[in-house]
Specification:
Strand content: over 45%
Order of helices and strands: HEEEEEEEEEEEEEEEEEEEEEE
Amino acid sequence: MKKHLFRIVLFLSPLSCFSQAYIPMPSDSAVWRYRIYDMDYITQILDNSLFINGKDTVANGYTYHKLFSRTCKQTGAPGFNPPFVTTDASAPDIVYGAVREESKKVYTLAGTGEQLIFDFNAVVGDMIPAYSGTIKVTGIDSILISGIYHKRYLTTDAGYSVIEGVGSSRGLLPGINDGGSDMLFICFTHATSTYSPDSTIPCTYIYPYGYQSAVTNVNDPSEINVFPVPANDLLHVSTNTRNGVLNMVIVSSVGQIMWQGDVKDEPEIPVGNWPRGVYYVTIYPGKFSAPLIKKLILD
């Protein structure tokens, strides 16, 4: 009997020691996209992205990651509700606030000072920050996001949960989205990870102000060649134009500027450390009336 008991203990011990690794909040290349409605007549739509691009700031003795806001404003007749598509910002980015994480707690810094928005130390029964103040944790499970399991904290509100490495089911800042019909959290993206509370709505992006996300009505692509596509370690740029130095910007699919500068004499741009995915190369040749945009894939 003792031998059998000993075998059972040995069998169960590895299981009892297993725990899911903690996934911290991202500090770079992270985007949370929302749609905001004018609920009086729905004649105005604001597609908004809050994003972190790795720029840091120091305040009150702490280091924060700057949080930026990028908005596309669209208007129309009553009942206007344009589809969710990739679009361009209607104004330059603004600094919305800042975010920091310490000991599995996530804080934001805005006009009202620092606030605790997520506590990933919580256990069932704890009260955690939420859109309405605090809310009770009723259970803890996992959710699969882009092939990786993230711990999820369920609450007394069936429509509100908190997810490690993502934020909440209503976006990064619970206080700006109380679940009402005037604001909709569309998706979260970070590198190759994507989370959408409603998978039927496409996760699209807002590109920086002044850039063109569409590839229609641009000049002859034979003038400039970006290769190889897909790229791996080095990206080459060649041109048969005679206007000398060209200005080029490479933007990620979530709007982050990865490289910017002048190019000439077929430069080599190292891209080996960039996240795999889709990028857009915008070239501003002096003799063209509009920028030339090319799609780049890193695999």
